[in-house]
Sequence to fold (182 residues):
Amino acid sequence: MFMQIKNRFVAGALIMGILTTGAILPVGVSAKDKIVGTVSSLDESAGILTILDNLVPVDASNATIKKKGVDNATLSDIQEGDIIKITGNDNDSGVIEAISIKDPVKLNKNYDGKISGKTERVNTSADTFRVMGQEVDAGNLPGLSMSSRTIPFDAMRPGVSVDVFVVAKDSRLNTKKMVIRS
Fold:
């Protein structure tokens, strides 16, 4: 009898461990970067759109699209001028491969867009970095906000999770504000 209870306990613990692990792992694996901006142009037949004054190309051909008030939304339900949130990844050529697109989204009037992701290719001498494959100019940025203090941009390193609030100016994405996420 003791052996049966012991075996059931071990089997139950193993099954619970698998279920728990299975519920936790996909959440970590599916975490994607996000970008918010206004649609500048749209090519439905190619499944491509651009945001932020045509500076950021997005491959929306495989994206799930959610639009308020529309069941089974498609790319044709998105219009130029819509403010959208894209979840996806950079494909190493600057094009964002969208997994999902949500419309409408609110955006602070002080910014043209918001990019959330990890910093890459940080160049502190040129005051530039990449996030979600997009080059961002941080020349006007006095520093990075982290909790209640400001860190100079010279201390920035690749792999830091950030929210970058940008404006499109002179055919570039310029940082207006940058916050380190914890």
